[in-house]
Amino acid sequence: MIDLERLRYGRFVILQHDFPFLHWDFLLEQQPAAVTWRLLACPALNLAIPAQRIADHRLWYLDYEGPVDGNRGIVTRVQNGHFRVLLQSPSMLEIQLLETDFASTARLQIMSHEFQVAEPQTVEKGGIVASADPAPAEASADCVWTFKS
Prior knowledge:
This protein is 0% helix and 59% strand. The protein has strands at residues 9-17, 23-30, 33-39, 48-57, 66-67, 74-89, 92-98, 105-116, 122-125, 128-131, 140-148.
C-alpha cells in the first residue's frame, strides 16, 4: 500500500462498481498506483460516507469504464478530475477537488476502530444518482469520507 503522506496532487475518480455489492471506488493517483477506498454508501454532500481502505488499483482505472476482469462486475465513472492536498495528518487527509461540479473538497477521517455501515440511501444531488442496496453485514468501515461544496 502507498504511504498517504506522499500524496500531493494528481487525478481522482469515483467509480460506481456493482460487485460484490453496489459500492463506489474512490481513487487518488499516486505513482505507481492509485490509492483506493471503497465507499459503502453513495457519495453525497455534507454526509459522512463510511469507507474501507482497499488495495491500491492500477492507474488505468482512472480512465476506465466497463467490465472488470475475472467476472468482477462493471465499473462506471461518475466523477473525475484532479485533486490537491490541503491538510494532512496521520488520521486525516483533506483534498481540494478540481474540475468537477460534485464537490470542492473531500475530507478523510481515519477511525481508531471499525464500525458498522449505516442504512442505504437514495441520493440525487451532485451529479450522482443511486439507490444502494445495503452493504453485507460483514462490511465494516475503517474511515469516513465527507464531501463538501
